[in-house]
Design goal:
The complex is a heterodimer of chains A (94) and B (484). With 94 residues, chain A is an alpha+beta fold. Chain A has a domain of 42 residues: Glu-tRNAGln amidotransferase C subunit, N-terminal domain (Histone, subunit A). Chain A is 35% helix and 10% strand. In chain A, strand 2 and strand 3 form a beta hairpin. In chain A, helix 1 packs across helix 2. Chain B has 3 domains: 295 residues, no CATH class; 114 residues, no CATH class; 58 residues, Arc Repressor Mutant, subunit A, CATH 1.10.10. Chain B contains 15 helices and 17 strands. In chain B, the strands form 4 sheets. A 9-stranded mixed beta sheet of chain B has the order 3-7-8-11-1-12-13-14-15. A 3-stranded antiparallel beta sheet of chain B has the order 6-5-16, with no helix packed on it. A two-stranded antiparallel ribbon of chain B has the order 4-17. Chain B is elongated and about 95 Å long. The chains are: A alpha+beta (94), B alpha+beta (484). The interface between A and B is large, with 35 and 54 residues.
Chain lengths: 94, 484
């Protein structure tokens, strides 16, 4: 299955990746190969197989509704590039 | 042309758990910014979410109270998008296997009871809170920068999605008030719109009446009260009809309700198709609920407003309207029933007092009915005193005010103020003779046909007994006296 140039550009945009022309070209080829490899799965007859969302046989991992300590505000904010009055400061959104 | 509005509502409700959906951070509202945050809800690498069991229970309660089927098998999914209110760059939500599906809510509309289908109710985490600052602060599209508080990020939320079964702003209003009342009854949320624990978006379209093709829908946001919700929907319906009449197309867009201008306006957004690339959340295992567990939750539900309303009509002989007003507030309904227990003979009389004088005082004092000085037994006794002719309805009004202010039993007030109604014909007769003598001219006017002065004479007679004479007796006896 061949991915188009435009599709790769679109995926890059969704992932907020800045790609050069050359990178788009090489990723188009590489991603197409990956998809082709995965397409082998289409050969399996999965008519009676339930979709699997998890490889572990686990279910219902819950916790009690008990309050635990949060981190101090200072620590929460320490990785923020810009901080203002106890908040993370982010650039104009629109 | 005749147009029919078609409206669907998406209601987000924060669940009243102590902790967030995936971590132990507290959910208390109004705390200093970014102090209820931990590595899990901040989405730091290497952390793992663990589902809060209480949130599952509350979400299932919502589903069951709204007549949904609770899924025995559901899962969480990852919804990907970049926005500063989401530190992980994805929201953990539910996509194709929501916890609750296919429910309904019954509302009263102009055409009787109407069933509004509920398509799904899924569980998800709330996002952080953004404050848009600088420039035209407060407006997203005119601010210079935004400040982010992640205290709300990760708080459990259910999204209740209705089918497009609503046809007017009024119906939407009815739906929202009924929904809120049910949620308050089952105790899963504060439903406080000002604090954002209940939020509503509306999908509005119009199409020619009878047509099976739906019109282009517009999403209306930023409606922070039910009243605004109704106004915004009504405005949007008019706007869309006007455009169609003008042969202008309806654009599929998001608009927000502008409170100052009383209209909807287009929300500026990035030119980008929504492509959330949902996939099963790899950090969380499936949620499997046994039908026994679901039945247990169902049994734990309290009597819901609609059931209570039916029971009030049947057991207490109330009108549909009276019953609806009383069940509209769980505390008021409970208070009412305590009063009726104390004096079951006149449930309707107690209801009248609650919807009249007591409701007026409650409105003025804006407090929970159980925090008042007056207690259900007090009101029950007051109604009993009226029924037994000990006091007149007019006296009762003054006694009620005193009861409200002091929290005394009415019998105490009657005794201490010597307010017992006079039912003794002899005493009333004396008062009547006195008034007939004193106002002989007016008596003459009455006798020569001026009926309107009768009320004046009744009033004077009652006054002559310090307001204590039984008004009905005064009426009858005075008439007898004058008409001879």
């Amino acid at each position: 299955m061949d991915l188009s140039y435009a599709e790769v550009r679109y995926i890059a945009k969704l992932a907020r990746l800045e790609l050069s022309e050359k990178e788009v070209e090489s990723y188009t080829a590489q991603l197409s190969t990956v998809l082709e490899y995965m397409q082998q799965l289409d050969e399996l007859n999965l008519k009676d197989v339930e979709p699997l969302t998890h490889v572990f046989q686990m279910q219902n991992v819950f916790r009690e509704d008990k309050v635990a300590m949060s981190l101090p505000q200072k620590q929460i904010l320490q990785n923020g590039p810009e901080v203002q009055s106890g908040h993370f400061k982010v650039p104009q959104i629109l | 042309m005749n147009y029919e509005p078609v409206i669907g509502l998406e209601v987000h409700v924060e669940l009243k758990t102590n902790t967030k959906l995936f971590c132990g951070c507290s959910t208390v509202f109004g705390i200093e910014a970014n102090t209820q945050v931990c590595p899990v809800c901040l989405g730091l690498p290497g952390t793992l979410p663990v589902i809060n069991a209480k949130a599952i229970e509350f979400a299932a309660k919502v589903g069951l109270a709204l007549n949904c089927t609770v899924a025995t098998h559901s899962k969480m999914d990852r919804k990907n998008y970049f926005y500063p209110d989401l530190p992980k760059a994805y929201q953990i939500s539910q996509y194709d296997q929501p916890l609750n599906m296919n429910g309904y809510l019954e509302i009263s509309s102009s055409s009787g009871t109407k069933r509004i289908k509920i398509v799904r109710i899924h569980l998800e985490e709330d996002a952080g809170k953004l404050v848009h600052a600088g420039g035209k602060a407060g407006r997203l599209d005119a601010s210079e920068y935004s400040l982010v508080d992640y205290n709300r990020g990760g708080v459990p939320l259910v999204e209740i999605v209705s089918a497009p079964d609503l046809n007017s702003g009024e119906e939407a209003y009815e739906y929202l008030t009924s929904l809120k009342n049910i949620l308050l009854y089952i105790g899963v949320s504060d439903c406080n719109m000002e604090e954002g624990s209940l939020r509503c978006d509306a999908n509005v379209s119009v199409h020619p009446k009878g047509s099976s093709v739906l019109g282009t829908k517009v999403e209306v946001k930023n409606m922070n009260s039910f009243k605004f919700c109704k106004q915004a929907i009504e405005y949007e319906i008019k706007r869309q009809i006007a455009r169609l009449e003008n042969h202008e197309a309806i654009l599929q867009e998001s608009r927000l309700w502008d409170i100052t201008e009383n209209k909807t306006r287009v929300m500026r957004s990035k030119e980008e198709a929504h492509d959330y690339r949902y996939f099963p959340e790899p950090d969380l295992v499936p949620i499997i609920l046994s039908s026994e567990w679901i039945d247990g939750i169902k049994e734990s539900l309290p009597e819901l407003p609609s059931e209570k309303q039916k029971r009030f009509i049947q057991s207490y002989q109330l009108s549909e309207y009276d019953a609806k007003v009383l069940v509209n507030d769980q505390s008021i309904a409970a208070w009412y029933e305590l009063a009726v227990q104390a004096y079951p003979t006149n449930a309707k009389g107690i209801a009248n007092w609650m919807m009249g004088d007591l409701a007026a005082q409650l409105n003025e004092n804006k407090t929970d009915i159980f925090k008042l000085k007056i207690e259900p037994q007090h009101l029950a006794e007051l109604v009993e005193l009226i029924d037994q002719n000990v006091i007149s309805s007019k006296q009762a009004k003054d006694i009620f005010l005193e009861m409200f202010q002091t929290g005394q039993f009415p019998k105490m007030i009657v005794k201490s103020k010597n307010l017992i109604q006079i039912n003794d014909p002899l005493i009333i007769e004396q008062a009547i003779s006195k008034i007939i003598n004193e106002y002989s001219q007016i008596v003459q006017q009455y006798k020569s046909g001026k009926q309107s002065v009768f009320g004046f004479l009744v009033g004077k007679t009652i006054q002559a007994t310090d307001g204590k004479a039984n008004p009905k007796m005064v009426n009858e006896m005075l008439k007898k006296n004058l008409d001879v």
